[in-house]
Amino acid sequence: MSEEVRAYGNSVVEEPSGRTVIVSSMASDSHTWNLVYLELLVRELGFDVVNLGACVPDELLESECVSRRPAMLVLSSVNGHGYQDGLRVVQRLRAIPELRRLPIVIGGKLGTGGPLSDEQTAELLFAGFDGVFDEQNAAAFRHFAATLPGGVSQLEGA
Ligand code: B12
């Protein structure tokens, strides 16, 4: 086994590989092609991807992040509830000590009235997101991901 393991509670978790990114929807959202798109995009950036799929319960997101210790968590929502779901989920994740420094971003169609307001975006960032990407802002997301350890820019520089 190449990765170090250590005890955590009643289970055994792997130390972060630095190359795995979790892509996920949140509990209310059943759309899936957005996740397929993100999985391909993140792979193109040089990462391995674990795609948790649609309608992911908060508890499953928490346990997957704690056990896999990914390089980043990418949340996607397009059903219009992303702002509310995102606020709830990121506060829960940030309350877990192991996940306080995990890069967490969200994107998609996050509100019901078009793009989020600057105030709503600021609230999501204040609640714990490292990036909030409107659906038209894939370039900014690519830039963010490429600066993470394990991303393509790091590999090219090696
Ligand atoms: C197919 C579809 C469905 C299917 C989904 C089937 C499936 N297996 O995915 C079904 C019928 C189940 C469905 C249901 C609903 N849907 Co629907 N659906 C669509 C539709 C027509 C296409 C979505 C799609 O697959 N797009 C293709 C993918 C690749 O594109 P995308 O999802 O837009 O994602 C892009 C960007 O948003 C961005 N992106 C997404 N996530 C992220 C994350 C990051 C980090 C970044 C950088 C970018 C990013 O990148 C992607 C590529 O550009 C859209 C309308 C449309 N034309 O977009 C409505 C749409 C998303 N649905 C909508 C709604 C309202 C619903 C329902 C609430 C309808 C209802 N009353 O029941 C339910 C919600 C169900 C639920 N619990 O979530 C609305 C959402 C409105 C909003 N956000 O304000 C839309 C926009 C339709 C509309 N114009 O009103 N839907």
Automatic annotation (TrEMBL):
InterPro entries xref list: Cobalamin-bd, Cobalamin-bd_sf
Domain (B12-binding) spans: 18-155
What PROSITE patterns does the database record attribute to this sequence? Answer: B12_BINDING (PS51332)
Q: What's a single GO MF annotation on this record?
A: metal ion binding
Put simply, this protein is called Cobalamin B12-binding domain-containing protein
Q: Which organism is it from?
A: Amycolatopsis echigonensis
